[in-house]
Write a sequence for this structure.
């Protein structure tokens, strides 16, 4: 979103806020009640939250499987065949040397202690 759109949105929100102290207090009370009601939903509806947690866990497992499958298919189409079937194990980093740099070339140079700190 561009800065102009954000500025217009903020201006509209500020424009619709009440100027009367009583209306401001009423709006604040309603907003605080809505936040409290939302934050304590699981206290009032424990069974619903428990079921939602089970559904969420299943969704996360499916997402992990889908991501692993997409990764493996992308690697196969790129010509980097992996052994075996689908696995949810993190892929290993290819450590074969590339270019002309030696491992000691990749280490940062020692700069010594700073003076005057």
């Amino acid at each position: 979103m561009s800065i102009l759109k954000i500025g217009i949105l903020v201006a509209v929100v500020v424009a619709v806020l009440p100027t009367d102290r009583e209306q401001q207090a009423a709006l604040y009370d309603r907003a605080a009640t809505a936040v409290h009601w939302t934050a304590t939903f699981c206290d009032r509806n424990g069974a619903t939250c428990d079921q939602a947690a089970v559904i969420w866990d299943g969704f996360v497992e499916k997402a992990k499987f889908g991501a692993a499958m997409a990764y493996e298919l992308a690697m196969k189409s790129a010509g980097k065949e992996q052994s075996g079937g689908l696995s949810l194990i993190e892929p290993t980093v290819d450590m074969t040397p590339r270019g002309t740099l030696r491992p000691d070339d990749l280490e940062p140079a020692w700069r010594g202690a700073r003076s005057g700190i």
